[in-house]
Amino acid sequence: MRNAAITGWGMYVPEQILTNAELEQMVETSDEWIVSRTGIRERRLAAPADTTLAMSARASRQAIEVAGIDPSEIDLIVLATVTPDKFMPSTASLLQTELGAHRAAAFDLAAACSGFVYALAVGSQFIQTGVHKTVLVVGTDALTRFIDFTDRGTCILFGDGSGAVVLQASDAEEGVLSNVLGSDGRGAQHLYIDGFDSNGLYGRTISSNGNGTGNAAVDELQRTYMKMNGNEVYRFSVRVMGETAIEAVNRAGLRLGDIDWLIPHQANLRIIDAAAKRLDLPRDRVWVNLDRYGNTSAASVPICLAEAAESGKIQPGMNLVLVAFGAGLSWASSVVRWGATGVRGKGTERDG
Ligand code: COA
């Protein structure tokens, strides 16, 4: 079986910054509360031009450049998102054209904040089984478009962005060593955004006389917003992050002491700290950027990965644990061995 090595990485976050101080003007909250309960200081908001496609294209172009490949070499694009620009076609198909990856198969994958790690598992299987040689895996979300900025329970947490990696077949001892995917739909009501109803209407319809008939002729359309039971999601995530990461380490045939870096989903610093403790990793071996970006959903793990790779702190031979959780409720983890091919491209050029 061939290995699926990460040979390129890229990220994009929108320009507009929303600080905790600005949120203080919008809802009853404080910078002190947000920082102490979540670790978040600011987040990025997608401008109208920052569509899921546009953000994905920017992150993907970087990843392709770092990998030093031509877009025509890409066999498959898997794009994880719960905020696609259109219901059809998939944003992955639009991205294919945007990148000129005309040979690629393309599809979207929806697993909310676990989406990128799910997509990495899917992409790496196609390489490991010999079906494909080069796969582009993207995680992009613009969840702030579905946030009620009068709901202090959710509006402080989320930001927008995109991250991407190129996976390539390799015979070296590197790449994705294990995957763990999970879902428990019994927890679906704890975190959701309503979609179209059976009349094809977006969001929840309310009747003008308030009886909620769902009849398009008489009902007004309401915006659809994210709903979350923060305490339930918190309890679930603290348990599942550590458990699933340890399972991925076991499946890779490694021990906890073999792990060099934790690359976790960026939801809440307290959740990340709990996972790091379970893995027995000190804070300086855990990638954290939620202070700057908040929770970017499917983009959070690949943005961390891109930053970590560019920092030069992850070296060939190091073992990384990627772990995420989200709506579903869902969870996913992968162990990745950073390879020599993962330092070519941009990093190598920069180092001369
Ligand atoms: N600013 C100020 N006070 C707030 C607040 C805010 N933004 N949000 C809630 N509070 C208040 C509550 O009303 C409550 O007040 P009370 O004690 O008077 O009733 C108090 O702060 C504590 O609320 P609680 O919900 O218990 O806080 P918490 O420490 O659990 O933190 C979350 C809330 C949402 C930050 C936390 O539960 C969390 O991170 N959950 C996971 C969410 C998540 O990761 N979602 C995405 C998954 S991909």
Provide a brief overview of the structure:
The chain is α+β, with helices and mostly antiparallel strands and 352 residues long. The protein is built from eleven helices and 15 strands. The protein has a five-stranded mixed β-sheet, with helices on both faces. The protein has a four-stranded mixed β-sheet with strand order 8-15-14-13, with helices on both faces. The protein has a two-stranded antiparallel sheet with strand order 2-3.
Give a topology summary:
Layout: E1 3-12, E2 16-19, H1 20-24, H2 31-38, E3 42-45, H3 52-67, E4 76-80, H4 91-99, E5 105-109, H5 115-128, E6 134-141, H6 152-155, E7 161-170, E8 175-183, E9 191-193, E10 205-207, E11 219-221, E12 226-228, H7 230-251, E13 261-264, H8 269-278, H9 290-293, H10 300-311, E14 319-326, E15 330-337, H11 346-350
Helix pairs in contact: 3-4, 7-8
Bound molecules: coenzyme A.
General description of the model:
The protein is an alpha+beta fold and 352 residues long. It has two domains: 3-185 and 227-337, Peroxisomal Thiolase, Chain A, domain 1; 192-225, no CATH class. The chain is 31% helix and 25% strand. It contains eleven helices and 15 strands. The strands form five sheets. A five-stranded mixed sheet has the order 1-7-6-4-5, with helices on both faces. A hairpin with a 3-residue loop joins strand 14 (319-326) and strand 15 (330-337). The two termini are 34 Å apart. The structure holds coenzyme A. Coenzyme A binds at residues 29, 33, 37-38, 113, 152-153, 156-157, 191, 228, 230-231, 233-234, 237, 267-268, 295, 326.
